[in-house]
Amino acid sequence: MSIFSRLRSKLFKLSNHLMDQQERCKKCNIKCGLIKVSPDVLRSLEDGFQKLSGSNSTSLLKKYLTKQVFDELKQKKTSFGSTLLDCIQSGLVNHDSGVGIYAPDPEAYVVFASLFNSIIQDYHGGFGPEDKHPKLDWGDISNLEDLDPNGEHIISTRVRCGRSIEGYPFNPCLTEDNYMEIEEQMIKIFRTMEGELEGEYKDLTTMSKEEQNQLIDDHFLFKEGDRFLKAANACRFWPKGRGIYMNHNKTFLVWVNEEDHLRIISMQPGGDMASVYKRMIEGVYYLEQNIKFARSPRFGFLTFCPTNLVKFSRYNN
Q1: Distance between CA 184 and CA 244 in Å, rounded?
Q2: How far is residue 163's CA from residue 273's CA, in Å, rounded to a whole number?
Q3: CB-hemisphere CA count at 13 Å for 279?
Q4: pTM assigned to the model
Q5: Minimal CA–CA distance to 103: which of 263, 291, 311, 294?
Q6: Is 160 exposed, middle or buried (0-12, 13-18, 19+ CB in 10 A)?
Q7: Which of 36, 179, 248, 312 shows the greatest Cβ crowding within 10 Å of its Cβ?
Q8: Within a 10 A sphere around the Cβ of 289, how many other Cβ atoms?
């Protein structure tokens, strides 16, 4: 190889290295919130902030979205493309919100931490910026007992938790393809469930309105989102990619792409908390053996709404 060929080869490798470095820097800048948002988003933010500031709202959003915090965050973006507007648009529209903020993707809890941390600490009563969620510990089930052994007081018992699938944004940044991909992945897993967890998946696109209404009346199925979720753009492409998995006894349910990617529910008549809790743990354990959930060292399993993050001092879920 001539000296010119070797030089050309080195220059080619250097060029590729610089291009890779630029791409990594771009992704890092977006993840750190250093890429500016569009003028339209900025105008919507400025207008919404002005109206919220002048309102009589008592939301946690208004309480902690000071002018200083607003100016710090309004130009930031996550690598999923989420902006401050994606986080607070529901609270900007609904001044009667109690909280007023959602996390549009896992990175939002970090990029917009100066706002999320304050709201989470206030809502959950003491989870400060330096606190971290402990390792998963379901506790000792043997300590649980039937809360109504004679069946006199408790109609039914339900335990549930939310989970998000790693690698995907949350509402409102899920695309139509994202919804369908998540549903397809879950259907494959549901088909492998056995024993007490074995059942059937029903998607909303093919389920009749009569069956949907009956399942809603029986408190098994979710409805389309309320005005707070709709304002957060959490109901796009409805009902595509949405559905419910039910075991044959209808004591173990999984909602797909309602508010979170997954809502995992265990329920049955009466007050046998131990049986209900044990079944949910078994279901969650089986699912996490087949798909990876989004989890933060600080907050534990991540959810769309920060109110569904579980307080570290009371629970270990």
Answers
A1: 13
A2: 21
A3: 28
A4: 0.85
A5: 294
A6: middle
A7: 179
A8: 9
- Is residue 122 within 8 A of residue 60, CB to CB? The reply is yes
Alpha-carbon distances of 208 from 129, 223, 237, rounded to whole Å: 47, 14, 18
Q: What is the pLDDT along the chain (317 residues), one digit of tens a residue?
A: 566 566 566 655 555 555 555 555 545 555 555 667 899 999 999 999 999 999 999 999 999 999 999 999 999 999 999 999 999 999 999 999 999 999 999 999 999 999 999 999 999 988 888 899 888 889 888 889 899 999 999 999 999 999 999 999 999 999 999 999 999 999 999 999 999 999 999 999 999 999 999 999 999 999 998 999 999 999 999 999 999 999 999 999 999 999 999 999 999 999 999 999 999 999 999 999 999 999 999 999 999 999 998 654 333 33
Question: Reduced to 3 states, what is the DSSP secondary structure of residue 199?
Answer: strand
Give me the amino acid identity at 277: Y
Q: If DSSP codes are grouped into helix, strand and coil, which group holds residue 297? A: coil
- Residues 85, 90, 92: CA angle, nearest 5 degrees: 70
In whole angstroms, what separates CA 182 from the centre of its chain? 13
Question: Quick check: 97 and 59 in contact, CB under 8 A?
Answer: yes
Burial of 113 (0-12, 13-18, 19+ CB in 10 A): middle
